Amino acid sequence: MATTSARYNILPTLEEAETRSGERDQVFATVARLLAMYNNSFGLCLVHAHCTLADDEIMLARDSISQPEKASSVKEYYPERWLPDGTPYESTTTPTVPPPAGLIQAFNTLTSHIGVLGLYYVSDEHQGRMIEHTEGRKNILKPSADTGQAGAADNYTETAWNLGRDDPVAMACVIICDTRSTRGGAVHKGTRTHIKSNN
């Protein structure tokens, strides 16, 4: 059985996931009806990795920072994002509820052919629109008004959708020019920045 870090490390990059998700719009209406049956407690997400995890690490969100942490040193954590088959791949310190087996089975049937759509737990917190930027292996959330990037989403990849809202886009990744190494070691210009709204 693969470890959490081993499963995470084979997830596609943002660019790979975007390329593979071309058919997603065709399933949104059907998935929206399915998620409504579960009170829209879960949203749809584009499954992708932010970095490479070492053994025993998990990607863990604490308040506004998500970063790799040793699972053995974290007292309590809860799955926050799941692959189509219900396998968790990102966690949080805030309690969540796992998707019911019936939801996972139906969701997997509807989306497994795309391969990069998963589920995320919809929090009750209302933080408004947020920008996520990467510093090393940390992904840091800030209100978009504090970053001056509220309108910077000219070239973005939508990565999370709360299909129970009028405006379903809950998160988008924006490429910001920078020189950094990719997860695989290649150098390119393009760090990942996320715009997130928990409405």
Write the layout of secondary structure elements.
Blueprint lengths: L3 H6 L4 H7 L3 H13 L5 E5 L10 E6 L2 E6 L7 E5 L5 E5 L8 H11 L5 E5 L7 E7 L2 E6 H4 L8 E6 L7 E13 L5 E11 L2
Parallel strand pairs: 2-5
Antiparallel strand pairs: 1-6, 1-9, 2-3, 3-8, 4-5, 4-6, 7-8, 7-11, 9-10, 10-11
What can be said about this structure in brief?
The protein is of the alpha+beta class.
User: Which structural class do the helices and strands define?
Assistant: alpha+beta
Give the end-to-end Cα distance, rounded to a whole number of Å.
37 Å
Count every helix, treating DSSP H or I runs of 4 or more residues as helices: 5
The percentage helix is 10-25%
Secondary-structure element sequence?
A: HHHEEEEEHEEEHEEE
Major sheet details: 11 strands, mixed, barrel
**Average pLDDT:** 78
C-alpha-based Rg, rounded: 16 Å
The beta-strand count equals 11
With strands numbered from the N-terminus, the spatial order across the biggest sheet is 1-6-4-5-2-3-8-7-11-10-9
Beta-strand portion reads 35-45%
Low-confidence stretches: 149-153, 174-182, 184-199
The shape, in one word, is globular
What labels describe this entry?
disordered C terminus, single chain, 199 residues, 5 helices, alpha+beta, eleven-stranded mixed barrel
Plain-language structure description:
This protein has 199 residues and is of the alpha+beta class. It contains five helices and eleven strands. It has an eleven-stranded mixed beta barrel with strand order 1-6-4-5-2-3-8-7-11-10-9. The longest helix has 13 residues, at 24-36. The radius of gyration is 16 Å and the shape is globular.
